[in-house]
Structures are given as structure tokens and as C-alpha cells.
Amino acid sequence: QICNQHNAEAPNLEQAFHRMAQTEPNLDHDVSWFLLPSYWAKTIVALISFLCFANSYDGDFVFDDSEAIINNKDLRAETPLGDLWHHDFWGSKLSSNTSHKSYRPLTVLTFRINYLFAGGFYPVGFHVINIILHCTISVLMVDVFSILLGGLQFSNKGRRLNLAPKTSLLAALLFAVHPVHTECVAGIVGRADLLCALFFLLSFLGYCKAFRESKEGHNFSIFWVLVSVILGAIAMLCKEQGITVLGLNAVFDALVINKLNILELIQKLLYKDKSLENAGLLRKGLLFRITLLMSGGASILYIRWRIMGTGPPAFTEVDNPASFADSLFVRVINYNYYYSLNAWLLLCPWWLCFDWSMGCIPLIKSISDWRIIALAALWFCLIGLICQALCSEDSHKRRILTLGLGFLIIPFLPASNLFFRVGFVIAERVIYLPSIGYCILFTYGFSLLSKQAKKKKILAVAVLGVLLINVTRCALRSSQWRSEEQLFRSALSVCPLNAKVHYNVGKNLADKGNQSAAIKYYREAVRLNPKYVHAMNNLGNILKERNELQEAEELLSLAVQIQPDFAAAWMNLGIVQNSLRRFEEAEQSYWTAIKHRKKYPDCYYNLGRLYADLNRHIDALNAWRNATVLKPEHSLAWNNMIILLDNTGNLAQAEAVGREALELIPNDHSLMFSLANVLGKSQKYKESEALFLKAIKANPNAASYHGNLAVLYHRWGNLDLAKKHYEVSLKLDPTAPGTKENYSLLRRKLEQLQKKGG
Fold it and tell me: For the stretch 679-718, what's the b/e string if a residue is b when 16 or more beta carbons lie within 10 angstroms of its beta carbon?
């Protein structure tokens, strides 16, 4: 029945299709599932994948989006395009020791294009592209699964046959609606994983095209093998995992094209059997193609290593505590436990969290820890699957299980800690590609159950139920990724021991002005991780603003003691010490901050304020000048220079600095106001008036702007206008210092003029 319906689409393929059906078991035969034409299957997959994540389209920039997009100078037009090839994903120089070495220039390029087309940091365009990418990948998965589950067969006219239309549709739907993909789709930074997956799949499909004209693999297209290698390189330029496609292509070639029996090959190698030719290793060009793949992969990795510059990135213990354990036993046990948790997220993706570090998963330190059961269960299942993949007499079963395990394990290897330390414990985004293997194994298991089950429709309804639950979970999880508040709070129930979760909730509350609630979460973050210097720094800042200076100093002092090169904490400690009038200690703290971060404009600004308080005017001006050199748009530093020069009677110099500042920041109303004051004192009334009016237009509710413009009119002799702006100023701020007195003087003068006139 399936053959007839399928070939109704392409009658000329009937003979080839039936020949294939006779030589190999058909997974679809016993499966009670939808049989649809290819274009309908792909349309349904696209629509359902869109439905899952559509509600994330108008979400904010959240979590890592701030660093990778908003604070990444590589997105801005003024940054040369060539810099993208020398910077990491976050915009830092790859040669820097602080770089994370995540080299993804093509992903950053797409962010830059998004930014340019949107005309700024508007998240809608970024989210829409992510959703489109996931829909595209899900559609491609129909073709990929048809090859992995049904085999690679072409008609006489070179058209690829879909020998598993039912199961390939089911597997593609499972992939499209898997909730673990939410981070990649709803989080804009997940673009790296989506682009990597797109070119990963194109590389695999390109490799399959190499055999379109072949008979039993004897003839193949070198062109398409090379295209596959190039697409693999492009995938790696989107994210590091992309390189693993070359390994999977080799596995696919051996198992599907050459129908290699791995167990038989191992036995022949062990017994030094000289008939390896018959085992399929050398025939059909396998060795040559694997050599091409390996050479391409090695070249790509070598170039990547050279670009990376200073070696692997340096992560801290809080990022990946297991990798810092002294005991090999503890490291191995915990790595395997992490693998089991990743497997559980694929099987039951209900408990999802934006971050799994910082105590979320306490280390297993003893064999008596009950969590050992999880990794034992993982290896029991893996060993069982591996044995079936190697030893089964059914070649069809061996092929599908090996491909499923290959797609599950090989793309995960870069995140496994086996080759190098990674900067996370668990990251849902890194199992986007390995979930392909899970979908293969799930679908194959479903087909086996269908073969045994008497009531196949009940089984099909159960799978439909799983799909509907996953769609619902995707929609719910996508809504949580729409804002930082929802995202961070959703993690409290999943990872209550994660200090970073409490820190992020606290930071979000502090940004909204709710300092009391923020303090509670910052304190909990420090309690959970007593060495969490960023939480100490932020808590110290809030306490400083609330004038709780003693505790603020204790926290900041502890932070710099734990991490002596923490420049921001040194600067904040200096601010607190300045407030406590311990000026020498404050100056020393500022210079220590600058020592650890050479280009630190905010620290130079605060150092200038300290010098101004000490009446060291030259030093203050130099510090503020350094701040503006490092950050030309540093409005506060420019303003303080103008005000200090104004207050010390250096009006000409103050005017020159003010004009320089306005050339760099032409729309800054505070600079207009400061320069207008200087020009008024220099009796340049007309120019001063124009700047005051421009500043008031930009910020009409600033009482001081109206008050000082009134003073200008008062001096200038425009008494009616002076009266008008004094009254506006007093209406905005009835307690404005000096304005009441000046207004009284003006009124007396007006009364005197009226008497004289009378």
C-alpha cells in the first residue's frame, strides 16, 4: 500500500522502489502514521515548528544577548568588517587572554546585518530570523531522516527516493517540537547553533549527493565531497560543533554506502585477516573519501587553532566545577552524571533552565551518592544499544542504531570535556544537534513497538499525545524567554541552589529600581556561593547608594581579596572610601582598578571627582580628560571639566572644552546647559540663549535650565522673559536654590520700574 501511494507521486520510480523494498525491510510497513506527499509533509513540519516558537518573535534581548549583541561593537557600522575575523563571539580580540575563544564570525555577521536592516537594536528582526532558521532546519530534517531511516537510494534518473515517508515525518516532527530547542530559537544568541545546524545538514545532504550517479558506491563525485567539506567549515564558522559533520559523513559512508559490518571489521583487524578488501574498507573508494574528509577536517582545525592565538580559554571553577576537581574519580563520575542529565533532558524536557552552573548540580564526591544510579542507567542503555548496533544479525537494525548513536554522540563530543574544558555544566543549546540521534532512536523504537503491538492506533495516539505535550511545552517555554524577569524567575524552581539564578533575579530587580527585593536575592546568591564576587560587587553598590557604607566596604573588600584583578570592585571600593572621606585609600583603590583594566573611563571619571574634592584641580582635569579620550561620549566627564573650569574662572578654556564636547555629543542637553552658563558669563548672550532654549526643548522639565535662562535674561535686561522662566522654574521645583531670591529681586526691580513709569 505504501509503495503504491508513494509511487503515485512518481510512477517512473516504481521499479526502482520495489527493488529496494525487496532488498531491505521497510520501517513504515508496520507503522500506523500519516502517509503524505513530500511537499505536504514538509509544509506541516514547517507550520508546527513555527507554531511552537511564534510567541517569542516580540521578546526582548535576554541574558547573554546583552553581551553578544547590545554590547558587541562588531555589530556597529563603524567597526570594520575585517575585525569580525579577529574577534571572538563577544567582540573581544581572540589574542586576548580574557577571550572565550568562541570563534563564530559568520553568526556575528548575521547579527550585524540584522542590526543594519533594523536601524538599531530592535529585537523583533533578530527573533524572526531565528524562528525562520528553525523552521528551515526542521523541513530539511524530513530529507535527512528519510536517508537515515530509509537508506540512500536513487532512481535511474538520479532522483533520491524516500523509502520511509511515515517515519521520516514522525522523526522530523519530534525534532521540530522538542522543548530543549527553545533556548536556541527564543534566545537570540542561539543563532549560532541554528546556523551551525543548517550548514551541518547541508554538508550531510551534499555528501549524499556525491553518490547520485554511483552504482553500489563505485563511482562518486569528488566535487560534492569537497562541497561537503566546505559546508562543514562554514558550519564551524557559525559554531565549533559544525566540524563534527565530517566525522558523521565518514560513519554514514561506511555504514550506508559501503554497508560495512563494524564487528566483522574489528574481528578481522584483531586476527590480522588480510581479506580486509572483502570487508569493504578499501573497495568503493571509502578509504579515499575518508582521507579527503580527514584532511579537510585537519586543515580546518589547524587554521582554527592558528586564528585562536593564545591557546584554549581560561574558565573559572564556578563555570565548570567538575573539571577543577583534584580527583580523577570525581571528574569522571561527574562528567558521566552530566551526560546522563543531558540524556534526561532529551527524554523528558520539562525542567529547563537558562543556566545550570554555580551549585545547580552539586558534585558527586562519593560512590554512595544515590545519583550514581543515573549514570549507571545511562551506560546500561548505551551499552545495550551499542551491542545491538554491533552484534545484531539484522543489517538494517545495525545501520539505524549506529547512525542514531552516531548523531547522538559525535556532535556532543566538543561539549563533553573529553578533549578540553568547557565553560558550562549543562547547556541546552549544545544538544540541538544531538537531538537528531534521539529522534532516530525514538522513531525506530516506535516502529519496533508498532510491529509487536496489536492495537497500533493506540500507540499512534500516544505518540501524537507526546507531540502535543511538546508543542505546549515549547509555547510555554518560549513565553518565559520573552523577558529576563520571566526567564530568571522560571529558573528558581528548577535550580534553587544556583547562585547565578538568584544573582540574575536580583540584577533584574535592581535595574527596575526595586532595591529592597534585589538585596534579598543578592544576599542569597552570596550565601549559596561565598566566593561570588559579582554578587558582592552589585550588593555593595546598592548598599553604597543606600548609604550603608560600612557593610558595602566589607563586601567590596572581600570581593577584591577573592579576585584581586576585579577592576570594577576596586573602583566601587574607591567610591565607598571616598564617601567615608578616606581619600588616600580611595585614590589607591582607583589606581589599582586602572592597573587591572588600562582602558577604564569610568574609573578615571571617579578619580577626577576625588581630586576635585581635594582641590587638586589639574589632576582632576587630567583624569577627566583621560576618561574622554578613552570614551569620547563620556558626558559626565566633559560636564565636570566645563564646570570646574567655569568655577575657577577659566571661562575661555571652559568654552573651548564645551564646544569640543558638543561636537562629539551634539544632542546632549546637559552639555548645552553647561556651555550656555559659560557663554552667559562671557556676555555672549545671544549664543547662550540659543543653547539654553535648545537644552530646554530636549528636557523641558529641568527646573535649573529655566532658572539659569531666567538669570541670563535678568543680566541681559529682558526682564519679562526672565520673570516668565523664573516662574516656570519655581513651578517645576518650588525649592530651587537661589531661584526664589533671584525672582524676588526681579519682582522688586519690576515694581520700582513701574513706580518710576507711573
Answer: bbbeebbeebbebbeebbeeeeebbbbbbbbbbbbbebeb
Residue 195: pLDDT above 90? yes
Give the model confidence (pLDDT) of 512-527 as tens digits. 999 999 999 999 999 9
Residue 599 contacts by C-beta under 8 Å, 6 or more apart in sequence? 630
Cell numbers placing 560: 577584591
- Neighbouring C-alpha atoms within 13 Å toward the C-beta of 593: 27
Higher per-residue confidence, 273 vs 241: 241
Q: Tell me the C-alpha distance between 470 and 345, whole Å.
A: 12
**Domain endpoint, select from 460, 477, 494:** 477
Spatial distance between the Cα atoms of 243 and 250, rounded to a whole number of angstroms: 12
Alpha-carbon span 55 to 482, nearest angstrom: 8
The more confidently predicted of residues 94 and 24 is 94
Nearest Cα neighbor of 251 from 444, 143, 379, 405 is 405
Residues 6+ positions from 614 with CB-CB distance below 8 Å: 583
Q: Is the pLDDT of residue 570 over 90?
A: yes
Q: Which three cell numbers stand for residue 336?
A: 558521566
Alpha-carbon distance of 568 to 560, in angstroms, equals: 9
Q: Which of 475, 467, 417, 413 is nearest to 439 (CA)?
A: 467
Pick the last residue of a domain from 477, 500, 535: 477
Q: What is the pLDDT of residues 627-651, one digit of tens each?
A: 999 999 999 999 999 999 999 999 9
One domain for residues 286 and 336? no
Write down the pTM of the prediction. 0.84
Nearest in space to 220 (alpha carbons), one of 249, 190, 261: 249
581 burial type by CB count under 10 A (0-12 exposed, 13-18 middle, 19+ buried): exposed
Q: Interior CA angle at 152 toward 146 and 155, to 5°?
A: 105
Report DSSP letters for 639-687, one per residue: HHHHHHHHHTT-HHHHHHHHHHHHHHSTT-HHHHHHHHHHHHHTT-HHH
pLDDT tens digits for 391-430?
888 888 989 999 999 999 999 999 998 888 888 899 999 9
Examine the domain organization and report whether 297 and 169 are in the same domain. yes
Q: What is the CA angle 230-234-237, rounded to 5?
A: 140
Where helices occur in 239-349 by DSSP H, the ranges are: 245-252, 262-270, 286-308, 328-347
Q: Assess whether pLDDT exceeds 80 at residue 137.
A: yes
Please tell me the total count of domains within the chain: 2
* Cα separation, 621 vs 605, whole angstroms: 10
Task: Indicate if 190 and 336 belong to the same structural domain.
Answer: no
Single out the residue of 452, 441, 447 nearest to residue 401, CA to CA. 441
CA distance 500 to 508: 12
Q: Above 80 in pLDDT, residue 579?
A: yes
Share above pLDDT 90 across residues of the chain, in percent, rounded to a whole number = 65
Domain residues for 56?
27-308
Residue 93: phi and psi, rounded to 5, are: -65, 135
**Cα-Cα-Cα-Cα dihedral sign, residues 138, 140, 144, 146:** positive
